[in-house]
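A quick aside before the break. I want you to see a complete sequence-to-structure record at least once, exactly as it would be stored in a machine-readable document. Don't worry about memorizing anything.
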Amino acid sequence: MPYKHSEKKIPEKLDRRVKLTKSQKDEKKMKKNIKKCSVKDCDKNAKCKGLCITHYNRYKRYGRTHLIRKFNLSDNEKRMYKILKEMIRRCENKKSNAYKWYGAKGITVCDRWKNSVELFISDMGERPDENYSIDRIDSNGNYEPSNCRWANRTTQARNISTLRKNNTTGFKGVGKHGKKFQARITIKKKLIHIGTFDTAKEAALAYDKYINIHNLEHTKNFI
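That is the input. The structure line, written in tokens, reads:
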């Protein structure tokens, strides 16, 4: 009797999947979960807080992910760039010692200046000399063309946002006088009486008006 080979069923479709090792599976899973840097036009993989290593280190150092290019700048432009960079640092870098007086109070640098030192120079003009620095007209306002000027130390000392500890009215140049309020201003160490008013707000408005009429550099109440 002839020998018969046992017939084996051949599967219709062969399973071609390759079994992966545990390390290969973990690597595949990691690749699937990798996210790109959240900075626009950056194709690098995110490593920390949604940023790539380059942008994360830049954020830690400067408080921002983009830098202002300072190539091919003249000596004056480099000095202006340094001033601008310091403005941005105290407004955006929480590690700055000055941040509590600027960024923490909501003060910012306008995008027009942040992205172009040329526009900053165009708006502000050249710095008069080393005794002048950037001053915000409204000390509670932002760094922007309409609110900035070059000022010396004397002018900046007058332009302060904080009130004296003994001020009970909440307005600069306004003091209580019985049931009424007086508006006063000091010019060249001389105290000038502006007027007496029924409310603190009226006195504050008179104080601001006096500054505008006489073109003084004192801080106004801006009400």
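Two observations worth writing down. The two ends are 116 Å apart (CA to CA). The domain at 167-223 is CATH 3.30.730.10 (GCC-box Binding Domain). We'll return to this after the break.
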